[in-house]
Amino acid sequence: MNKAKKMLLLVVMLLAVFVPLLPTHIHADQTDDSLEQIKKSGKLVVGTSADYPPYEFTVKEGDKTKYVGIDIEIAKKLAKDLGVKLEIKNMAFDSLLVALETHKIDAIISAMNPTPERKASVDFSDVYYTGKQYMLINKKDVTKYRKLADFKGQPIGAQTGSLQYSLVKEQLPGSEIKGLSKLNNLVIALQSGKVTGVAMEEPTAKAYAANNSQVVAIDPGFVSDTSQTGSAIAFAKNSPALVAAANKTLDQIKAENLIDTKYVPEAAKYMETSTKNNTVLSYWTYFAKGIEYTLIITVAAVFFGFILGILLSLMRLSNSKVMHSLAVCYIEFVRGTPLMVQVMFVYFGIGALIQSLPALIAGIIATSLNSAAYIAEVIRSGIESIPVGQTEAARSLGMDQKDTYRYVIIPQALKNIWPALGNEFVTLIKESSIVSIIGVGDLMYQTQLVQSSTYKGVLPLFVAMVIYFVMTFSLSKLLNVFERKLNHG
Predict the structure, then answer these.
(1) Which residues are CB-contacts of 206 (< 8 A; sequence separation ≥ 6)?
(2) For this UniProt entry, which residues form the secretion signal (predicted)?
(3) Which single residue of 22, 276, 317, 373 could bond 334 by disulfide (Cβ 3.0 to 4.6 Å)?
(4) Is the pTM higher than 0.85?
């Protein structure tokens, strides 16, 4: 099969996968059943990025993680008014809109600003809280940076996809903007000198400053449209019934002034309590849970990836042009795209067709499919490294192709490829950290929870590094034992 036919086959395969996943929109004459669907399911699934105190953050209660903050209280009230249970999905801020559009969540309550760009894709409730835009700086720079003009030409950090990111880009055109999905990492960048300041909302900036003596919150004088700077609840496009229900809840919250009199004081109390009992050591159960999920993902990906890898390698070595081309297209496509994109595609893309697809299963599927492509090439190279005389000798003894592979080729090939195969298994432990972007509670995800709960950035990362090293080093030693047995077999 020539190159042109292979490219055509690859395009056809991609269209077959992507076309069914193209978004469909509700026409104006169709009935809005958004509210009915939630009541029918019996739960309201709310997406949030729980690293934004006092809006949404996590605290430790016993061995469990509790989501608290202004937005969490609003979510609880909305779910109660709708007569359904509340389910919180914690994920990266810049993944929330994708999750909403693919119906992985029913609403976003995460201090999201209703900008015109976002309104084009989703529906918003009324604004429920408005705060100024502040800058978090190092305490030693408090006399150096006071107003917006002082930051000109300086590297500034902001959460990716946030209003603050847009404001920095517009009002500090000469500055280098560094965008990250987690505020914890931005604060680390600030304290390590990677950025001069971090743009965030006033309550959040003050929360970080109150719990970290090395940073200070200032008002640099950002100019912003008050209609876009407030926080609102986001819903899928064309959900007027759900928006109306949310506005009814928000009207009651405003009438009783619950945010200022109840939600903010409660958030402050949680932050104060968390600060007093926020030693990283006390969060050992978080790391233990992260290890558990990391090992589950790794073992499952190794098992399924190895099986699929064997199949793909045999397809690529097949005399059938169709089988060979399918294997080549799959391997080249998977190896030519980032694992992060593949994880998000499986969860948000395929997950749009299978609404009940859990994040953990999506993570296992994505890492297994990715690993299979690399394992296939390792196995293929091992098989091709066996001299052709071995095959001829086996066939001369009356073995068919199946027995030749089973008893002659594969055992010898396995000995040759074991180091490369072992390296792929070790790599999987580290690459599994990518699934944290879709809310899987692996080690990296749990580390981020510890960061947001303790207001410490570097120490939790150091602990995670040590744990990853122990796991990979232990696996390497175990694989070496098997390698020695193979060599002496």
Answers:
(1) 134, 217
(2) 1-28
(3) 373
(4) no
